[in-house]
User: Fold this.
Amino acid sequence: GENVEQHPSTLSVQEGDSAVIKCTYSDSASNYFPWYKQELGKRPQLIIDIRSNVGEKKDQRIAVTLNKTAKHFSLHITETQPEDSAVYFCAATPTGTASKLTFGTGTRLQVTL
Amino acid sequence: DAGITQSPRHKVTETGTPVTLRCHQTENHRYMYWYRQDPGHGLRLIHYSYGVKDTDKGEVSDGYSVSRSKTEDFLLTLESATSSQTSVYFCAISESKGLAGGQETQYFGPGTRLLVL
Assistant:
């Protein structure tokens, strides 16, 4: 089955700096890669996703890049703000009928003033 | 929040007792999923459903069963709860979009915090 590794497990940046979180996956059949943000005590919320037919996708201050050859994808947050502080999870799945997401173990991002 | 509710939101139970968690959606989506979330493990898929009465196992299905008798409800049952099943349980849904694809996008419910003593 799929295995997703996520690094780093914790990340502290100053407000206004950029943050990068990296994930690798093992199953070459995976072609859908979402990122979720989870605030303390809340549900995971989808913030951005990418499919294997594109290499990069942006949405305002967040972007995701995908390298299918190397089997890794990354989340980039620019101009970080205190409200970006949360746990971020990457995930991967082949597309098809039901999607069975395999998640990374999460990155706790702390944005300090 | 995608019309998903979970009940109960919190539960404390004793080892050996049966527990049923309910996920209810108002979106009429085809696919429903149960995950558990534990520190250091992220979210792990327990079971999923691709239609009424159609279910299958996920990564960590041992000790759990599911049922889906209606499109809107997906039940997760712990037949005999153990302390290792203390966790936060999340339900998720995704939409069938036929040939257009996109059914892989999942939206999560608010979660159920379960403590097994």
In short: The two ends of chain A are 41 Å apart (CA to CA).
